[in-house]
Structures are given as structure tokens and as C-alpha cells.
Records
---
Amino acid sequence: MPELPEVEALAGFLRERVVGHVVARVDVLAISALKTYDPPVTSLGGLTVTGATRHGKFLDLDVDGPHLVIHLARAGWLRWRDEIPSRPVRPGGKNPLAMRVHLDDGSGFDLTEPGTKKGLAVYVVRDPADVPGVASLGPDPLDDTFTPGALGAIVEGKRTQIKGLLRDQKVIAGIGNAYSDEVLHVAKMSPFKIAASLTGEDVEILHDAIVTTLRDAVERSRGLEAQDLKGEKKTGLRVHGRTGQKCPICGDTVREVSFADSSLQYCPTCQTGGKPLADRRMSRLLK
């Protein structure tokens, strides 16, 4: 799933390529991806793109008033085209194309989502805050207001595991499954640690890990083509998605805990005092 660093890079990528161009038309191939009807998506035709930015994991194009807001979900992606094919694309079937945006110079981009489980969401709104997911976002961890004190107020009294808290978009915007694993590895903190149990020192360490991990990932992604961002994310990860491999810090084996629809990765030596965490799914299978 694209998270804050990749969406930030996509916003920068689009600022260079679409701002100042007129939207020629928008083709909607997957009606289920379009979550709004007023303003209609057709109203974007003939308008100029004036900005591209990010809200958490939401991508936002300001089209001279109306906003085209995109959430790529788990499998969605943006594919840039220097030249849009002239042949029309038919909706349905195995085609992963959900939406195509044509610009006045013949370029544009596709929004794609392979697989059967669909989560890609596109909104045309007058204000980004009209998107429920944007309106409910917590603070952005790259904003200057996200201080150790702000993080301390967030975790205070929270009787939930820190891994889940970091992933909650209503608590902190932009961190998903991958970067929460990375942040906790940098902080040398168990993903099962209860948020309310963090000391003042723990909060300082976690805050530094959040900010440095995300800023480093943003810098690595800056200036890359959209097609290269997924590969950069994968190569830059230290523990997430690396089950069975060696921890780059201590050399211990990276382990995994599996859930119904996701998994987390961690290093026992760096994060849990050398003790493996219980994998509830495997425990059930062994009963």
C-alpha cells in the first residue's frame, strides 16, 4: 500500500508534469472507484490543474477550484503516460484500469488496481475536507506541529498496542503497515508495547524514529519516476517484508506475526529482548 513517502513523491511528480495543464477529459472505467457525483467528474474537463499536494495517504489535485482526491488503497497505483493511447479502453473484465485522465498536450495518467479486492477511491469535491477520510485525519508527522509533546499527548492513556496506534489514520496521518514496522525497528520498540506505557524517554525516541524514518524515505523517493517508487520503497525497507532474512543492524533473523489480512515483521534482538512474539495464526494451526 502506498504510504506517506510514496504519496508525497507522487504529489511532487505530478506538480512537475500536470500543474499548468488543462484537463481534456476524464474517463471512468471502474464506476465503483468514483465515490462522489457532485460536482460531476465531467466538470473537470476544460479546467487547469493549479496544484498537487498530499493529505496523509490521499493525493490531491487542485483543478482550478474543484479537487480530484485519490486514495490508492492497498493495490492501486498511478501510471504516468507521456502519450495517452488513442484507442479507447473498455471497462470491466480483467482490465485493472479504473480511471484515465487526459491532459491538453496528449499526456496524462492512469489509475490502476489489479486483483479482485477493490479499494481504490476517487473523489471530486469542492474542498478536500469534504472527503470523510481527509476530514478525520490526525496530525501529519512531517508537520512542524508534530512535536514530542504532541506525540506524548497522543499516546497518553491509550491502552492499545503501539503498532496499531501508528497505523490509525485518525491518530497520525500517513503511516501504514510497512513504515510502522520500520519506525518501531528504528526505535527498538516491540510492536505489542502498550502506548500508555511509554515513558517520556520512549516518546522522544519514538518521535525521532517516526520523523527520521519518514523523512529519509521521502528523500530517497524525491525526483523518481512514478514507476520507480514501488521498487525504491521495497529496497529501502529494513524489516518489513523481510521475514527470514538477517536484520541489517544485529544480524538476527527477522520474524513475522500474521493476522487475518496482514502481517508485521520485527527483529527479536533489536525490539523484544530476544524473545519471539506469539504468532496467533500459527498457534491456532498447531492446536
Note: The mean pLDDT is 93.
---
Amino acid sequence: MRKPHQIWALVSPAMHKKLKEYAVQNKIAATRAKMIMYILYNFHPDQLLEDYTFQSKTGKMVNIKVSDVELEYIKSLAQRYNLTISRLLRNMVYTFFRELEEQKRREYVD
């Protein structure tokens, strides 16, 4: 059996907390790594937002074990957005939760 690859990503403390909360609320595998993989495969934004609240000194580390196929998919996304893998993951998570907040606001207004 091949050894899985490991990807490390730093996210802001707020995003770290939201990953767990969202997974628990929606009965998705409640690990942050699996939640990030869920976002990568199910969320396809045209443009990523930058998480300007992120600071590396306060960032929270997430370790994701991925297969060869998953790693290639993530690399292709990083290349598409012209970002490092860690920054891609951070911005995907941030964009995902920002869009959720926007949807909630729109529903509240309607």
C-alpha cells in the first residue's frame, strides 16, 4: 500500500473553528481535514477571496492526508488559481464561509 501524502495548511483561528462547527451541524465527517476536502470537491468558485484576517503567527495548522489522485487534483486547483497549496486551501475555506454568510443575509432580507 502506498503511503498517503500529507498536506499542511494554516488557517485563521476563526476559520479553524468554523470548519468543525459546520461539519458537526451538517453531519459531515467532523475532522477539519475532511471538511476541507469536502469543500475542495463540492465548492467551485469562479474567484477566490483572500483571508486578510490570517496571520501566520496565530494560524491554526491542519494536516490532510491525501492519495495520489487527490494530491494531483489539489495541485491542479492550485495551478488554476496560481497559489501555493496552503494558500489555496486557506482561501477556499475563507471563500466558502463568506459565501455561506452572504446566502444567509440574502435569505434574511428576502
Note: The domain at 5-109 is CATH 1.10.1220 (Arc Repressor Mutant).
---
Amino acid sequence: MLLSDEQKWKAAIDCDSSYDGQFFYGVKTTGIFCRPSCKSKNPKRDHVIFFDTAKQAQTAGFRPCKRCRPDLLKFEPKVETMEGIKEIINEFYTDPKQLKEEIDGLGISKNSMIKLFQEQLGMTPVQYINKFKIEKAKELLLNSQDTILSIALQCGFGSLSTFYRFFRHLVSMSPTQYRKLFAKKEDVR
């Protein structure tokens, strides 16, 4: 079904994502083109031109909006933000100060980040970090001869008792039991 310019205009001012991919609109005064779902400020109607494809908009000299990224086939800002946060956690999980600085650099509020983690992963950022640390500890328990204290410190836990508490909570056994259980399974193979 072909959409009239007025239908396209209504979809654009309503930020209607159901029209994404069906058309794009360019703003003559800025030289930028957007998806219908873009949350940018609504332009004046007489400043808008419509395109069937992103390529048409670019050929006409418009550049993609940095907010809605109409140049990408699929744009999921929440997923991209989540992946960015997870990459930072994966790199700086043992250094709380650096971790905080890196996450602060993303410009996302604490409440927004908590909400994003709940929506995307069903847990808080702190729960994710602790789970990540325990997964790293499990790897080290299985693949190294390091002491449990050494593993706890390598994984960013400040004390052995904290490490044991989180390990028991998330794995339902102590690190020592986990290591012994795995060693027995290895011997059977």
C-alpha cells in the first residue's frame, strides 16, 4: 500500500515505529534524514521531504540522523547501550573505581541503567557484576591451581568471606566443593 505524504507526515510527528523501513524523511534545513520513529524535535512540515529508501535520501545529499540511525538495517539503542555497558563491566570488573568512571562516561543515569538491566537481563547491574565475577571464578577454579584466596582477589572480591558468600549464593556450594566436584568429573572421563 502506498502512503500519501500526509500519512507519512502523521507517522513522523507521532514517532510511529510501525512505519520504520517503509519510508524516511529528510529535513531540508538541516540536511539530515530520519526514520519515522525518530524522537528528535518535530521539523516544520514545509521543511520535510520523503524518501522510499535511505539510499535515496543519501543520494539526495542528506546525512543520517545520529539519534535514530536510519543508515542501519536494524537500530536497537537499548541493546547497543546494554552491550556497551557489558563490555565495560567485562573489562573493568576487578577495578570498581575505573568501572564507575567508564560507565559514567556513557552518560546514562544510574536509574536508567538499572531499568535497562531489569528490562534486558532481569537483574540489576550489581547482580550482573557479581554473577560475572563468579563465572570468572568458576573458570579459574576449574582451569588453574591458584588458591581460593588468589582467585577471589583476581575476580575483584575484597575478602575471602565475601567471595564465599556470593559463590554459595549463586552456585549453591562452596568454591572448594565446586573444584572437587569438577575434578571428580574430569577423572571419570
Note: The chain has three domains: 11-64, 77-122, 131-188.
---
Amino acid sequence: MPQKKWKISQLLIHLIFILFSLCCILPLISILSISLSNEVDILKNGYSLIPRMFDLKAYTYVLYRPIQLLGAFKVSIMVSFIGTFLAVLFMAGISYTLSRQDFKFKNSLSFYVFFTLLFNGGLVPTYILISNYLHLKNTIWVLILPYLAVPWFILLLRSFMQKIPFNIIESCMIDGASEFRIFFQIVIPLAKPGLATVSLFTMLLYWNDWWLSLLYIENEHLVPLQYMLYRMMNNIAYLTSSTNMMPPSMKNAELPSESARMAMAILAAGPMLAVFPFFQKYFVKGLTVGAVKG
């Protein structure tokens, strides 16, 4: 009898997780279906999990200039990987310093990091600093440097590195290891779950960013993917509103508004969905950093 109850409970748990998984997967299937659907059918009958009228007009519009789109992909991939590497290395160094028990100014620096989490310099001073003093406008570095130090990620890594026994670090120091060697050969390998989690979040931050390019990028060769898709969506909205104001005799074919929006979502999310499995092994452990104190 206890075994039967155990099987029923296991079945219920599996059923709950299956339903939860479906709730996560069905929106992705719906987005793919809408991107492959006819725009007129979407406006008349709404969304569906299976395209009622198969149509590639949305992808034809989005991929109208493939070379320009590939260039935007190249910029986004370069910014995401270079920015993630530099940002994680920089934030790991700060976090390691804050986690050291023998660091004299640990509390003062921690307060400074926490203070920047609550307040920032403002848009106008930041724009003046980046454009007039640092001269980063219309360079690839303007898309990388502003996210090198994210306070929340620094505090997350610090919480993880505080769990590394200080006795290990002391032993390395007694053996004559330098601080750089301790950091790169001891701390970094032990902090893999936290680093993997922060790396994923940082990569998503770089990949999804369009705000920096809107402010600082005018060179078409430096436009990232998200900003290009943002401009496409604005163009569709403008053309749609202009078409609605025209007489019926002058209206063109229906523009792929909803289907193009979903096609852009597929193109933007595809690379990140491919990257996520490489971080999945460490992701859960990294997210629970600091949840249990022992």
C-alpha cells in the first residue's frame, strides 16, 4: 500500500512538471506558428498553434536585405561574446576582492557597489561623458563598456565566492602563490556555477540591448541585431498607419505586422536558445547562491 501511494505521488509530480513544461513550450510553438501564418488570417481569426494559412511573407520582409541582417548578427555576436568575457572577468575580480576576509576596505567598496545599484548618474551626464569626454560614440566599445560592471551580478558573485573556504586561499599564500595565480587557478575553477550563471545573464543583457545603439550608434555597419529589428518594427507600424489613412483604392497588400513581429522574435531568440544548454549544468546551482547559509 505505501508503495502504491508512492507511485501515485510520483505520477502527480511528473504530471505537474509535464504541464509546467507545456506552459513553457507552447508559447514558443505559438510564436513560430504566427510567424508562418498569413497576416489577414491572423487579423480575422486570431492566433493558433498550427498555421491555418501558411505564409512566408513575414520572413520575406525581415530578410529583404540579408547582407545587412547578417552584418547586424555579426555585430551582436561579437559584442555579446567579447563583452561577456570582459565583463565576467572584471566583475569576478571585484567580487573576489569583496569576498576576501582580509581586505581592509571591503565594507566601503561593498557600499559603493550597492549604492550604484540604487542610483545612477542619469542619462544626460552619461551621454556627455561617453560622447564628449571618452569619445566612444560610433565605436564598438560603446556597446561593451557600459555593462562591464553590473552591481547585481557583482553581489551575486561575491555571495558565491564567500562560500569558498578561506583556508584554501591561506594555504596557497603560504605556499608562495601570487594573488593572480590564486584567482585564476583556484578561485575561478571553484566558482564555475556562479560564473556560468552570471555569464548567461550578461550575454542576454548584451544580446538584447538596443538602447545603447539608439543613443550612440549612427554608423550602419555597427548597428546590432536588436536595434535593426526595432527599426524594422517601427517602419512596419508607420507604414501600417499610413496605409490606414489612404483611400481604399490606394491601399497596398496587407503588411505583415503581427507575423513579422513573431518572425523577428524567432530570429532574435534563436542564437540564445542554442547557447543556453551549455550553461544549463551550472545554472540551477548558480541561481541558488546564498539561498542556504551553513
Note: Residues 289-294 have pLDDT under 50 and may be disordered.
